[in-house]
Amino acid sequence: MAAPIPPPIFILPPPPFAILPVGAYGISYDISTNATERDLPDGWNSRRARTYNQLIALLNAAGFDRHQYSDYRSLATTGFITWATMWNLRNINPPMKLESTVIGMKMQFYHHAFLFDITADLQLGGAGAPTLRGPTPANLVQQAPLMGNLLPVPAPLVAPPVPLPVHTRASQSAGVPINWMR
């Protein structure tokens, strides 16, 4: 009979947590792909999706939604709940998987969660990108949330850009003028 698995140790947050206000908090994590996917004894020989799916389920259950990649945010929580949620992520299976694969685990407090978000201004058609400054892939332009704000109205190129924009690899599609807008 296998010995029972001891419960994980909970570390209390530092004293300043008692004065943190309710607000927008985030949790970011970084898990080692190598430690997850490599065969034993160098790793768990597991698909990383199994780890991420468990983490995501626990984060969602605690009220955190995906912000981007491995960043999750809750707009109305406390520092203590965020702290406890991070420690609760150790409850994925098998035991000790998170502890042996985690590269980073951080929490953030977004005092001005939306004041410093420049996403809409930075996107095509936003205040900082009112016009195309060079050849741009057509579908990226047409799918831009603020595409209707672009002036002049983007039009397909009559010839593909020569040379291609920096770091754009040559391909059959890159040579088709209608795949570019200016």
Give the SSE layout:
Elements: E1 23-31, H1 33-37, H2 48-61, E2 65-68, E3 71-77, H3 79-88, H4 97-101, E4 102-110, H5 119-122, E5 136-137, H6 138-142, E6 180-181
Number of domains: 2
Structural class: alpha+beta
Distance separating the two termini: 70 Å
- Give the proportion of residues in helices: 10-25%
Short account of what is shown:
By secondary structure, the chain is of the alpha+beta class.
Structure description:
There is one protein chain. The chain folds into two domains: 15-110, 2-Layer Sandwich (Alpha-Beta Plaits); 129-182, no CATH class. 24% of the residues lie in helices and 18% in strands. The protein has six helices and six strands, in the order E-H-H-E-E-H-H-E-H-E-H-E. The strands form two sheets. Strands 2-3-1-4 form a four-stranded antiparallel β-sheet. It has a two-stranded antiparallel ribbon with strand order 5-6. A hairpin with a 2-residue loop joins strand 2 and strand 3 (71-77). The radius of gyration is 23 Å and the shape is flat. The mean pLDDT is 89.
Descriptive labels:
182 residues; four-stranded antiparallel beta sheet; alpha+beta; 6 strands; 2 domains
